[in-house]
Design goal:
This protein has 18 helices and 17 strands. The chain is an alpha/beta fold. Strands 7, 8, 9, 10, 11, 12, 13, 14, 15, 16 and 17 form an 11-stranded mixed beta sheet that branches. A 6-stranded parallel beta sheet has the order 3-2-1-4-5-6, with helices on both faces. The protein is elongated. 43% of the residues are buried. The structure holds L-homoserine (HSE). L-homoserine binds next to helix 10.
Length: 450
């Protein structure tokens, strides 16, 4: 019996019998590493609990992993170990396939194979959903099965379900998130212990937050994939990752974190999405936020997403964005949702590869800025610099001159300028002019969100 026939048969049973009957749902797990292993543990240890609370018996029927010994070491029985994806999808007891392999290689082929067999898929794969959700969703729809990906964004924090179900009453106008735990850990360490970037990264690697090649996290790719998924859902239109401005944290200087702190700001790698009359802006970059902002107190590897809706006003979700059991929490919640709902909910936007025709994306966005220069402490220097800002139409809020010792410099002093809101292009033009002026070089430019 395929998935459609199963649903049909279920609907033909009278309602009284349906509630009496315990539904049995078979799942397969593809990859039992950190997240897949946590998923196996959660499903097996909570099986009785789900029977009691959800009236569903979820059974792990199949596990596919190259390393059978690793699978057995976490308690996977030898008889459920499969040797190929064909074996998994041909198993009539498997209703839902959980993909926890990651990346866009075999994971994509395996998901497609499952969907083509009419199996609902639950995945934790952000890069795959970001790049191919249009293709995967098309195949899922054609085969009458679901595609769920709560675990792809912000680990255990139920942001996808919130966007799909919890805040549908609203026009979401703004989203700001700390959606990468590794970079948040590094920036917290730099802020609290005055550590430099290299040693904070090393510590993050030692603790297993950052990978040996940390690019995906520290250069903002991970946050960019998640922002693409989340802003598409929040704004009901495709926000392709190519439309997202991305800057990572590897150039962050701990002196700027310290100077920012003195001025009342905390530095975070923020993922920002805004939707208004002029269009959509989506960006990932290190950002100063006021110390009193709720996101400023989100520290270590924790994540948080802050949403603004026209009816609900402000909402913030906070929790662990990564890790075995927090991510498994999201995976298993999707499995339970799929197992207990016969109606499938797909994207609320036209899920295509590229942006929808007519939707405008803003690249020259507006922001306040923190700009640090290194200058000679001489008469006229400040006047020349502020003159350049004035020529570029940039209004200054605050100028702070620091001592040589604070900057660790011999002859020059740090000069910090905080601007009023201006455009990205105006700042780029002012920076270019300063760098060409012969007066000094701009050392740091950090956007400020109020
Ligand atoms: N590497 C990610 C992070 C977790 O540091 O948040 C998975 O997306």
């Amino acid at each position: 019996m395929n998935k459609k026939e199963k649903i049909q048969a279920e609907q033909n049973v009278c309602p009284e019998r349906r509630t009496e009957m315990m539904k049995k749902v078979g799942v397969a797990i593809l990859g039992v590493g950190v997240v897949g292993g946590g998923t196996f543990k959660t499903l097996t240890e909570h099986r009785e609990f789900y029977k009691k609370t959800q009236n569903v018996d979820i059974v792990v029927e199949s596990v596919l992993d190259r390393d059978h010994e690793r699978a057995k070491s976490i308690g996977v029985p030898a008889e459920v170990l499969a040797s190929s994806i064909q074996e998994v999808v041909a198993n009539p007891n498997v209703d839902i396939v959980i993909e926890t392999i990651g990346g866009c290689g075999v994971a994509k082929d395996f998901i497609l194979a499952a969907l083509q067999e009419g199996k609902t898929v639950v995945t934790a794969n952000k890069e795959l959903i970001c790049k191919y959700s249009h293709e995967l969703e098309r195949v899922a729809k054609r085969n009458g099965c679901g595609l769920y990906y709560e675990a792809s964004c912000v680990g255990g924090v139920p942001i996808i379900r919130t966007l799909l179900d919890g805040v549908q009453a609203n026009h979401i106008t703004e989203m700001m998130g700390i959606i990468n735990g590794t970079t948040n850990y590094i920036l917290t360490k730099m802020a609290q212990e005055n550590a430099d970037y290299a040693s904070a990264l090393k510590e993050a690697q030692r603790l297993g937050y950052a990978e040996f090649n940390p690019t995906n996290d520290v250069d903002g790719y991970d946050a960019m994939y998640k922002l693409s998924i989340l802003s598409s859902m929040a704004f009901h239109t495709k926000v392709p990752y190519g439309k997202i401005m991305r800057e990572g944290i590897s150039q962050v200087d701990s002196r700027d974190i310290a100077f920012g702190k003195q001025l009342g700001y905390t530095l975070k790698l923020l993922a920002i999405g805004k939707s208004g009359e002029d269009g959509i802006e989506a960006r990932v970059h290190p950002t100063f936020i006021p110390n009193a902002h709720p996101l400023a107190s989100v520290n270590d590897a924790y994540n948080a997403v802050y949403l603004r809706g026209d009816a609900v006003d402000d909402i913030m979700l906070y929790g662990r964005g990564a890790g075995s059991l927090p991510t498994a929490s999201a995976v298993v919640s999707d499995v339970i949702y799929a197992a207990t709902h016969s109606e499938i909910k797909y994207s609320t936007f036209k899920n295509t590869a590229t942006a929808e025709k007519g939707v405008k994306f803003i690249s020259d966005f507006t922001s306040a800025y923190y700009i640090r220069l290194s200058v000679e402490d001489e008469a006229g220097v400040l006047a020349k610099i502020t003159g350049i800002f004035a020529k570029c139409g940039i209004s200054i809020v605050e100028v702070a001159q620091k001592s040589k010792s604070e900057a660790g410099e011999d002859t020059r002093i740090p000069l910090i300028i905080i601007t009023h809101k201006t455009t990205e292009n105006s700042v780029k033009s002012a920076v270019a002019k300063i760098n060409q002026s012969g007066i000094t070089q701009v050392k740091a430019v950090i956007r400020v969100e109020e």
